[in-house]
Design goal:
355 residues, alpha/beta, two-stranded antiparallel ribbon, globular, 7-stranded parallel sheet
Length: 355
């Protein structure tokens, strides 16, 4: 089903004519829509307050907290879309993988996947495994009204990287060793993760998410030939699994300038671009038929209002010829970012792009 059609089996929802969904569908918009990756997070004092004494994974499994945290940046910044508050390892935790998110480190897996026998850790995900997601999204869509909610998940390669390495890595030597040295095991691992990821996204869409984003955070570590040969099919399987819902599908990774065309070909309707590639160059690489999302360098927000406006203008100018543009940072909001700088940025983009 095309994203230019209304949702399957339903009349257009309250969010269907929002600026965000129109931009994703490459339709005319009243202004360029804005949202931020990690917009609900450590930069907000109200976030830090509600998270006091609550671990990251626990906060992702409590519908009351998820609802409150997801809504905080919508209230404060007037962004054009909310993104569901969660973490990419939540579906893995939900199926029983022994992992935790350690402050200052990130996800740490107790028993990394290194052999075929280790694949037994990865059973199918069912809606009952993540009933808190369904509950939280029900609460959120009631509160958000005409503001779209973006669901999300980690892409198979990025999840595999954590599972094989046992935690964050700069070199991905264990994951790449499996990819190169045991391609059959690697393919089976990514295929299983694609099924888990697709199931997680389906739960979010069926509960009311208006769009979904697949974060392939670490795909930039791959050469294009390796992405095409060893990763792309798994991401494509995820996108194909949710295609029939007719919701926009966004694909984003960091340092993926050389992969942009392939990431679009994997099945995305919207390709996220980090700050390293100007949007007019990104569209040349990706080709027609895709909206683009991005791509202000997050560190610009520390440089003062004049510098932020100058660099934002550069992004908007580079996006002027795009079929569809969703303004975002080129990566997530950094924890020490001044929240007021984000609020001013939203106001500036809206004012500069009003049609």
């Amino acid at each position: 089903m095309s994203v230019n059609e209304s949702p399957a089996g339903r009349q257009p929802t309250a969010t269907y004519d929002s600026a965000f969904l129109k931009a994703c569908r490459r339709e005319p918009v009243p202004h360029t829509p804005v949202w931020f990756m990690r917009q609900a997070g450590r930069s907000l004092p109200e976030y830090r307050k509600v998270r006091e004494g609550v671990g990251m994974l626990e906060s992702c499994m409590r519908p009351d907290l998820v609802t409150e945290i997801t809504l905080q940046p919508v209230r404060r910044h007037n962004v054009d879309a909310a993104i569901y508050f969660s973490d990419i390892v939540v579906p893995l935790k939900a199926i029983g993988v022994d992992l935790d998110i350690k402050p200052g480190v990130g996800p740490v897996v107790e028993k990394p996947i290194r052999t075929r026998a280790d694949l037994a850790q990865l059973r199918d995900l069912t809606p009952d495994d993540v009933s808190y997601v369904t509950e939280a999204i029900g609460q959120l869509t009631a509160e958000l009204g005409a503001t779209p909610l973006i669901g999300f998940a980690g892409a198979p390669f990025t999840l595999a990287s954590y599972l094989v390495e046992g935690g964050p890595s700069r070199t991905y030597e264990n994951a790449k060793a499996m990819m190169y040295g045991d391609p059959e095991l690697w393919a089976d691992l990514l295929d299983r993760l694609a099924d888990i990821t697709a199931a997680f996204l389906k739960v979010q869409i069926e509960a009311g998410a208006s769009a979904v984003q697949l974060f392939d955070s670490w795909a930039g570590a791959l050469a294009p030939v390796d992405y095409r040969r060893s990763v792309m099919a798994a991401s494509a399987k995820v996108f194909q699994a949710v295609e029939s819902y007719g919701v926009p599908r966004i694909h984003f990774g960091v340092g993926t300038g050389e992969l942009l065309k392939l990431m679009g070909e994997a099945g995305a309707d919207v390709v996220g671009v980090d700050w390293r590639v100007p949007l007019d160059e990104a569209v040349r690489r990706i080709g027609p038929g895709k909206a683009l999302q991005g791509n202000l360098d997050p560190t610009v927000l520390f440089a003062g209002a004049e510098a932020v406006e100058t660099k934002t203008r550069e992004v908007l100018d580079a996006a002027s010829g795009l079929e569809g543009h969703v303004f975002n940072l080129g990566h997530g909001v950094m924890p020490s970012t001044d929240p007021d700088a984000l609020t001013r940025l939203v106001e500036y983009v809206h004012a500069q792009t009003v049609r």
